[in-house]
Amino acid sequence: MTQPKHLRRWTMPANYFGAVWPAYYSSGVGQSRDSDALERSNFECMLKALGGETETVVVVRELHWAVGWVEWIAIHQDDEKALKIADDITGKLKRSTLSKKKPTQPRRTATTRKSGSNTPADAASAPLVSGHDPVADR
Questions:
Q1: What pLDDT, on the 0 to 100 scale, is given for residue 112?
Q2: Cβ-contact 26, 8 below 8 angstroms
Q3: Is the pLDDT of residue 75 over 90?
Q4: In which band, very low, low, confident or very high, does the pLDDT at 13 lie, cut at 50, 70 and 90?
Q5: What's the gap between Cα 37 and its chain centre?
Q6: Is the whole-model pTM more than 0.85?
Q7: Using CA atoms in the order 25, 27, 28, 30, what is the torsion angle rounded to 10 degrees?
Q8: Cβ neighbours of residue 12 under 8 Å, at least 6 residues apart?
Q9: Rg of the chain over CA atoms, in angstroms?
């Protein structure tokens, strides 16, 4: 039997009621109502790489009080091919996440906050182009 390195076997969450999946692993990706484009893309790409839903690859759809709904891909412990595919992809996603460093940007001054501003007073009174200041948010 395949022992995945990067996948976790399903475990019963606290305060959970619903279907149980003791013979399944999570593919390592999921999505919810509040997922961003990257999470949704990772979910769709994983499902496609696994060949879509089958008897051993299941999209589990659950309701959640905080985010409305969640979906995750369950893979049966006996589907060695799907487990290997998901384990390889999840390992690459984890390595990619770990290797990405936050891009460094030069420290911005009040004069650089808005395009065309050339004095601190102009910049301070003008709204930010993006709607928020990433430097101030650090």
A1: 41
A2: yes
A3: yes
A4: confident
A5: 9
A6: no
A7: -110
A8: 20
A9: 22
Q: What's CA 56's distance to the chain center, in Å? A: 23
For residue 1, name the pLDDT band (cuts at 50, 70, 90).
low
In sequence order, the β-bridge partners of residue 31 are 71
User: Angle between the 37-49 and 80-99 helix axes, to the nearest 10 degrees?
Assistant: 150
Backbone angles phi, psi at 25, to 5 degrees: -105, 150
Percentage of the residues of the chain whose pLDDT score is greater than 70: 68
How long a stretch of residues is the chain? 138
Degrees, nearest 5: CA angle 15-21-26 = 95
Contact 129, 116 (CB under 8 A): no
End-to-end CA distance of the chain, in Å? 46
Closest CA to 54 of 73, 70, 72, 41: 73
Q: How many CA atoms are closer than 13 Å to the CA of 19, on its beta-carbon side? A: 10
How high is the pLDDT of residue 41? 96
